[in-house]
C-alpha cells in the first residue's frame, strides 16, 4: 500500500485535540481560472514516474500509471484535527482504470494527525463509474455506489466529516450528484496514521492505474467547501452562441 507523509510546504490542516481550530478553505476551479495546474502555493504537486499531469483549458488530466502517483496536496498545521469538521467538493470523471483488488483509481485523502479518510473512484464492469469511502488499503469499506449513467459528463462529488468528537459518533458522508451515496463512522473509514495533517487529491495509490479528468477541487475546514462553478450545459452554450450571433448582426447593421 502506498502512503504519504505531507511536508510542511503543502496546504492542508492540524491541531491538538481540545483546541478550537480556525476555519480555512481552498478552491481550484478551471471554470474560473482555465489553463493552470494547481498553483504553488498553496498546492504542492508531487509526481512519481511514470505518471503525469497536464492541463488544457478547463480540464486537468491526471494519468496515474501503475507504480507511479500524482499528489496535489496542501498542509496547514494548526487547522485540521480529529475534532475538526471538513468538507470537500470535486468535479471529475475517469477515462480508464485497472487494478485487480479494485482499489482507488482517483482519490482524495484527509489526514488529521490521528486518522486518514480515503475517498475513491474507479470503473466497474462495463466501465461504469463507482464511488466509495475507502478502508485502510484504499478499497471500498462499505461497498460501492454506482450513479445513473452520466454520458460523458463529469460527476459532482461532495464528502464531509460530521461531528467534532473524534470518535465513532462522527460520520463521513459521500454525495454523488447531490445524492447521499454512503455514510460510515469516522473510525470505520480509512485507517490510523501519525502524520502531518493534510489533504490530497489525485492518483494516490501506487498499485492501481487510471486516467482521470478534473474540472475542480475545493475544501473547507470548519466551514463549507467553496462551491465549484456548474459545468456549462449544452442549452446554455447554445444560448450564448445565439446571443453572440445576434450581436454580430446588430454590429453589421
Topology diagram in text:
Elements: E1 24-29, E2 44-48, E3 52-56, E4 59-64, E5 69-74, E6 86-98, E7 106-111, E8 115-123, E9 129-134, E10 155-162, E11 171-176, E12 179-185, E13 191-192, E14 198-203, E15 209-221, H1 234-252
Protein model, in words:
The protein starts with 23 loop residues before the first strand and ends with a helix. The protein has one helix at residues 234-252; strands at 24-29, 44-48, 52-56, 59-64, 69-74, 86-98, 106-111, 115-123, 129-134, 155-162, 171-176, 179-185, 191-192, 198-203, 209-221. Helices cover 8% and strands 41% of the residues. It has one domain (24-252): Jelly Rolls (Sandwich), CATH 2.60.120.200. The chain contains 1 helix and 15 strands, in the order βββββββββββββββα. Strands 1, 3, 4, 6, 10, 11, 12 and 15 form an 8-stranded antiparallel beta sheet that branches. Strands 2, 5, 7, 8, 9, 13 and 14 form a 7-stranded antiparallel beta sheet that branches. The chain is mostly beta strands.
Key words describing this protein structure:
single chain, 253 residues, Jelly Rolls, 8% helix, disordered N terminus
Poorly predicted segments: 1-20, 234-241, 243-248
Find the count of extended strands (DSSP E, 2+ residues): 15
Give the terminus-to-terminus CA distance.
Answer: 67 Å
The CATH architecture designation is Sandwich
In short:
The protein has 253 residues and is mainly β.
Amino acid at each position: 500500500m502506498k502512503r504519504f507523509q505531507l511536508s510542511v510546504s503543502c496546504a492542508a490542516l492540524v491541531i491538538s485535540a481540545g483546541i478550537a481550530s480556525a476555519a480555512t478553505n481552498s478552491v481550484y476551479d478551471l471554470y474560473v481560472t482555465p489553463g493552470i495546474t494547481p498553483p504553488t502555493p498553496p498546492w504542492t504537486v508531487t509526481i512519481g514516474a511514470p505518471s503525469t499531469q497536464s492541463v488544457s483549458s478547463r480540464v486537468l488530466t491526471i494519468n496515474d500509471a501503475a507504480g507511479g502517483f500524482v499528489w496535489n496536496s496542501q498542509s496547514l498545521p494548526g487547522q485540521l484535527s480529529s475534532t475538526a469538521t471538513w468538507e470537500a467538493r470535486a468535479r471529475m470523471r475517469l477515462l480508464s482504470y485497472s487494478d485487480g483488488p479494485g482499489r482507488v483509481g482517483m482519490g482524495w485523502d484527509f489526514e488529521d494527525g490521528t486518522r486518514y479518510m480515503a475517498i475513491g473512484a474507479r470503473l466497474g464492469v462495463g466501465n461504469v463509474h463507482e464511488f466509495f469511502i475507502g478502508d485502510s488499503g484504499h478499497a471500498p469499506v462499505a461497498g460501492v455506489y454506482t450513479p445513473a449513467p452520466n454520458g460523458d459528463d463529469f460527476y459532482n462529488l461532495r464528502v464531509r466529516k460530521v461531528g467534532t468528537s473524534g470518535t465513532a459518533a462522527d460520520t463521513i458522508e459521500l454525495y454523488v450528484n447531490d445524492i447521499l451515496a454512503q455514510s460510515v463512522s469516522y473510525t470505520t473509514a480509512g485507517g490510523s496514521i501519525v502524520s502531518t495533517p493534510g489533504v490530497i487529491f489525485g492518483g494516490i495509490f501506487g498499485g492501481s492505474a487510471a486516467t482521470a479528468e478534473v474540472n475542480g477541487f475545493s475544501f473547507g475546514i470548519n466551514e463549507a467547501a467553496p462551491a465549484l462553478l456548474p459545468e456549462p450545459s449544452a442549452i446554455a452554450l447554445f444560448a450564448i452562441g445565439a446571443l453572440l450571433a445576434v450581436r454580430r448582426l446588430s454590429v453589421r447593421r
